[in-house]
Amino acid sequence: MLSETPTSPAAPVNGSGSKVPMVLGALIAVLAGAIVFLYVQLDHMRTDMGKTRDALIEEIAKVREASSVTYQTNRRNVEALQHKLEEQRKQAAQAAGQAKDTALKSIEATRVQLEAAQAQQQALMKSQLSEVKQSADTQISAVNTEVSGVKTDVASTKSQLEKTIADLKRTNGDLNVQSGLIATNGKELAALKALGERNYFEFKITKAKAPQKVGDVLVQLKKSDPKHNRFTIELTADDKKVEKKDRTVNEPLQFYVSKARQPYELVVNSVEKNMISGYLATPKVQQSRN
User: Fold this and answer.
1) Taking the model in full, what pTM does it have?
2) What is the per-residue pLDDT across 55-71, written as a single tens digit (0 to 9) for each?
3) 124 and 215 assigned to the same domain
4) Of 14, 73, 177, 214, which alpha carbon lies 20 to 30 A from 202's?
5) Residue range of the domain that includes 231
6) Is 105 a member of any domain?
7) Roughly how many angstroms between the first and final C-alpha of the chain, as a whole number?
8) Backbone angles phi, psi at 11, to 5 degrees
């Protein structure tokens, strides 16, 4: 028969059991080193604080000594200034009478100078005013002369205008309607414009295919005869064309437009080769005919 031999218990591991005392020993050594380091630092701090305190005590003593010296110096300065002020007050009191006399003399001298300056200024202003008055009188005289000349010119022009207007003629137009005053040249046309009874539009029209606008009508030169002062034109107004054939200079050519009761009048003052010149007269008041 087989017999069972008893098994002995397992032996402990030597490695893990020896590590614990080593760790504890290391921690204790670190703590001891830290305590020693802190103690040394604390001792150094105590030494530094003692030195700082001694330095502060010494500095305070020096400040007190300097303050005392400054105070004494300032006090002596103040006393010196007070003494100087007192001396100056005494000197001022002694000089008051003399200064007053000097001031009065200065004031009197200034017054005399001021009066002299005022007199000189008044004399200068009087002289300048006299010159201005003389210049103004001269200019006024010149203006009066010029105005008199202008009045003479105006009177002469007015007289000439009245004479020109008196020379103007009235005649019947080609529609057998009595026309207004007829101008035969530029001078007479200027007189008509001065009267202001009608509107006047001057023109120079050359012979061409297209008509030329004069006022609010169209005029086309068809034929001109300088030798006999005759011409033929075509008028366009209100979209209607009217031919004025074989007419003479200074003849009022009359025609009606829808917006005026009185007739328009066209007068040719000059006939040249392929050109005529004159004016168109229209009523001042534009009013439709019924």
Assistant:
1) 0.45
2) 888 888 887 888 777 87
3) no
4) 177
5) 168-283
6) yes
7) 169
8) -75, 145
Q: What DSSP assignment string belongs to the chain?
A: -PPPPPPPPPPPPHHHHHHHHHHHHHHHHHHHHHHHHHHHHHHHHHHHHHHHHHHHHHHHHHHHHHHHHHHHHHHHHHHHHHHHHHHHHHHHHHHHHHHHHHHHHHHHHHHHHHHHHHHHHHHHHHHHHHHHHHHHHHHHHHHHHHHHHHHHHHHHHHHHHHHHHHH-EEEE-TTS-EEEEE--SHHHHHHHHHHTSEEEEEEEEE--SS-EEETTEEEEEEEEETTTTEEEEEEEETTEEEEEEEEETT--EEE--TT-SSPEEEEEEEEETTEEEEEEEEESS-----
> What is the C-alpha to C-alpha distance for residues 26 and 274, in angstroms, rounded to an integer?
140
Are 124 and 175 contained in the same domain?
A: no
Bridge partners, residue 221, by sequence = 233
Tens of pLDDT, residue by residue over 18-28, are: 677 777 788 78
Return the closest-CA partner of residue 162 out of 172, 171, 154, 170: 154
Of residues 108, 132, 128, the one with CA closest to residue 120: 128
Number of domains the chain is built from: 2
CA dihedral 206, 208, 210, 216 (to 10 degrees): 20
Residue 192 is assigned to a structural domain of this protein: yes
| Displacement of CA 215 from its chain's centroid (Å) | 43
In a shared domain, residues 130 and 201: no
Give the CATH number, domain containing residue 184. Answer: 2.60.98
